[in-house]
Amino acid sequence: MSRLDERASGVFVIAVTPFTDDGSLDLTSTDSMVDFYLEKGATGLTVLGMMGEAPKLTTDESAQFVKRVMARVGPQFPVVVGVSAPGFASMKELSSRVMDLGASGVMVAPPSTLRTDDQLFHYFTGAAETLGDTPWVLQDFPLATTVQMSASAILRIVEAVPSCVMLKHEDWPGLAKIDALRAAEKKGARRISILTGNGGMFLPEEMHRGADGAMTGFAYPEMMSQIVAAHHASEFERAQDLFDAYLPLARYEQQPGLGLAVRKYTLAKRGAIATPMLRRPGPTLSAGDIADIDRLTARLARRLKELD
Amino acid sequence: MSRLDERASGVFVIAVTPFTDDGSLDLTSTDSMVDFYLEKGATGLTVLGMMGEAPKLTTDESAQFVKRVMARVGPQFPVVVGVSAPGFASMKELSSRVMDLGASGVMVAPPSTLRTDDQLFHYFTGAAETLGDTPWVLQDFPLATTVQMSASAILRIVEAVPSCVMLKHEDWPGLAKIDALRAAEKKGARRISILTGNGGMFLPEEMHRGADGAMTGFAYPEMMSQIVAAHHASEFERAQDLFDAYLPLARYEQQPGLGLAVRKYTLAKRGAIATPMLRRPGPTLSAGDIADIDRLTARLARRLKELD
Amino acid sequence: MSRLDERASGVFVIAVTPFTDDGSLDLTSTDSMVDFYLEKGATGLTVLGMMGEAPKLTTDESAQFVKRVMARVGPQFPVVVGVSAPGFASMKELSSRVMDLGASGVMVAPPSTLRTDDQLFHYFTGAAETLGDTPWVLQDFPLATTVQMSASAILRIVEAVPSCVMLKHEDWPGLAKIDALRAAEKKGARRISILTGNGGMFLPEEMHRGADGAMTGFAYPEMMSQIVAAHHASEFERAQDLFDAYLPLARYEQQPGLGLAVRKYTLAKRGAIATPMLRRPGPTLSAGDIADIDRLTARLARRLKELD
Amino acid sequence: MSRLDERASGVFVIAVTPFTDDGSLDLTSTDSMVDFYLEKGATGLTVLGMMGEAPKLTTDESAQFVKRVMARVGPQFPVVVGVSAPGFASMKELSSRVMDLGASGVMVAPPSTLRTDDQLFHYFTGAAETLGDTPWVLQDFPLATTVQMSASAILRIVEAVPSCVMLKHEDWPGLAKIDALRAAEKKGARRISILTGNGGMFLPEEMHRGADGAMTGFAYPEMMSQIVAAHHASEFERAQDLFDAYLPLARYEQQPGLGLAVRKYTLAKRGAIATPMLRRPGPTLSAGDIADIDRLTARLARRLKELD
């Protein structure tokens, strides 16, 4: 088992949770999905996040799914598990369970009621105490949680809590936050890993500002892995060319609420999972949406050929 | 087992969930709390609501707690169980489990993402389909959920879904909504029971507008049962005198976020539960808060003597 | 002209803005309203606040109204004017105008988009720079603004900005905030005046925690002035007895959205203003609401006699 | 003067309001900006919208700015003016003033407190009554207003209010809403014009679903006019090629809060306005942001050459 630490980098794909058409967990698709993500360049996986429909799973299903993923990726591959919960007791229970199964770390988002810096500090130090020495990722996703965390609020948590090793960065706009965190490190603040979200919609700029990679679930994970690789090879124009090719589809997948349905449709179309089923209640694609996606993926294929 | 229907009235106390000082379920206090609520005039109980710290319980704990409550109240006493959940699968699972244990019905609150009338209609018709023929209570609590439901949106759901038998009314302000619902019934809309919340802070006025009673958790349930009784006996000034006596304390308990700690402190002080413990994360009373409550309860005792 | 400073205390009544039945400014009622507030014990007035329908006035009307109020109260009586505005240019313009007219200070609420401590600090230091040496009141009213300010965020602003002399305290719950601010002063933080809002619903407790008085608009300002006086005379039970008598009506007036209509109805009934007109769009009282208020005011009169 | 009606189509550019470096209105830049927009294919202009910093202008400045714009565009060119205001009296005053100056219509956004369909209906029928026979645009921009309007809520307003002639569509996701509105028209609902926002980020798809054009302020208005033209010529792939070229920059400009600073920087760089000044309080671009924009505009120029 690898333990997540502040040197983590690359692409941690936010995995969907596959269901069969009757709504039960699809473990066969879990295997094929894991294979797909690895093949497309994932250096880690994040499961049971918001886009993994985690709140719609029972505790037993969550454990069953994590177990299957762990078995497929093998013991050395880092897997982060979302353990956000209304109570610390449940957070501890799920966290212990998945760490025992071999997870590398867990991810915690703030409850939507938090507002002030002091409330954030109080909540996350409490969560960290609950999690013991389990390394954890601070999830900053204001569009979904309605909670805004300034760079200084994050730095205060990072300073007080050594087990916080990574920021899942998904503020929007968020580039100034990466600047501020990296500037603070230069002045002596403890370094943490910063992996970015937002469907990859700002990945080239985020890498320039000091991100270590991406943690997001766009149905073409190769976009993220290729951009990160090109960035590290200082091929910045190449990185941006790739980005531009994928952007029309990435933008379409990034529609709030509807996005997961777009993502699962695309993953099913690419053969990663058997069907695009979401658990209820959830959004449904219209014929027009499907025509849009089909058109955009066809254009993407042509554009990638031009770039070769 | 009694099945909840649209004739339900009186006082359904929103029960707290008692914990021991180490944070585990306190089943002994569960018994004493149930006895206390019944002795103070409860005609029904509602468990696993927002004020029951339901989201902090595991599924097993939820079932264990409901079972204990059911055993104590006996088969004929109506118990409503909160089953709000992010996914319909979990809602169905918990609902089936508690109905098998003998619950009279369940309660469903809207997820905080819903906004438009159509979204509400879509969500609740989906939930109702999931719940099958289980009678259910529509929970309208904008201050907590951020979801606002107009009278017409409620009526549309009531008309389409026969299994919706009650409104847990907790809008603020909310008197006009009771007016509108009862006016619609006079014009032919299906009747539902309306039990009101907000800690009883508007109970006399709500009864005048046509409420059937209260569903709230103020630590002096006798306030609600006496006001409802006085109202039915047309002793309106008596009802208001009682209300006025309890109001200073009810107001103090109604502070958002802090209120449950006030409530549990008072229940412990009254002997209903062993300790005022809340599961983490949760608010804590300061010495000043405790002094306030002690002062207010002492004044209440004196005032009630004057009224006798 | 008196300048507002950190020693301000007593009752600053939040004045309504009277309109005639055709919706124009009612300057005759402005005079009678001012007389009424002074007669009931106001030690200051706050105009053009949220409950003064300020955003519904044109700039010229605002100046006209402030001028009339200033003329009536005379040069030594402190008047605070709400100058919250989306842009600093408008804030400066209105502020200069009313200070020239003889106002004692201005009041600024945070725009609803602010979330983090840093955003608050940035906004209020910018506002203070705009206001120059005009003394100003920091308005903390999360229920209306959706902005939450921790005690430490407030202290940071107070420390950086000497012209911030008062907190209009209206958080809910908010007692712990007064505790924290007064505790910080004991450790050396600069003192500011704290006047509390929330319609007086927690005034006895707020005085115990260290408030200097009230700044709110309950239609019976004598409640606030008598409680503050009783508190200063250490007649705490007397203060609470008075409070309890007014509470049923204060609670009714405190209904969000509807409350201003209740307040203006009551003020008109008491003869302070000619008609209860609100500018559109605004709420309207139903016959049931009016019956409630009439019943509650009649009960209040009886209860006050009993207390005499 | 042309009156806005339900046949309006093309590109109504949301104009910025230019300021000089000392923060005063820049009327010279107003002229050059208008010329720029017209040259780039605008078929209409919308001024004093949210992105026009309207709330930061005084009433006199607003009128002065509108007058200057009207003089520059001439009497036949349609100009829509944002008149959203907390009170109907102010809305009427501004509306009358700008219609007298020759505006074609006005635009109204819902106040952020509205939630239910009934509240929306009540508000907009009241606003329409206030506006008399002035044609108006219903602004649907949930990300900024926090108000969500379903297609059925919009249709109800459209049916009741003949003076509502256009939807400024800016929901996200929003394609299904266009589908629903156009489907309703096929069943007999009154037609309205639909111009879309969101910085043009979904313009090709929106045109497919039945939009009549765009009303947004992306600093390259030629993107919108060319896409609309290509769409009408049934050159769909050409439309999408153009879109894809501009998308990386459009995405960057679409960052909430920061976007207007990006837009004004780009407009200044293109010579449309003299300086990128925003009125305070407002966001500021960092050196990194400026480097990003410069890089993206350089890439855009190259990409457009390739497409020629």
From TrEMBL, chains A, B, C, D:
<keyword id="KW-0456">Lyase</keyword>
<dbReference type="GO" id="GO:0008840">
    <property type="term" value="F:4-hydroxy-tetrahydrodipicolinate synthase activity"/>
</dbReference>
<feature type="binding site">
    <location>
        <position position="215"/>
    </location>
    <ligand>
        <name>pyruvate</name>
    </ligand>
</feature>
<dbReference type="InterPro" id="IPR002220">
    <property type="entry name" value="DapA-like"/>
</dbReference>
<protein>
    <submittedName>
        <fullName>Dihydrodipicolinate synthetase</fullName>
    </submittedName>
</protein>
<comment type="similarity">
    <text>Belongs to the DapA family.</text>
</comment>
<dbReference type="InterPro" id="IPR013785">
    <property type="entry name" value="Aldolase_TIM"/>
</dbReference>
<dbReference type="Pfam" id="PF00701">
    <property type="entry name" value="DHDPS"/>
</dbReference>
<dbReference type="GO" id="GO:0005829">
    <property type="term" value="C:cytosol"/>
</dbReference>
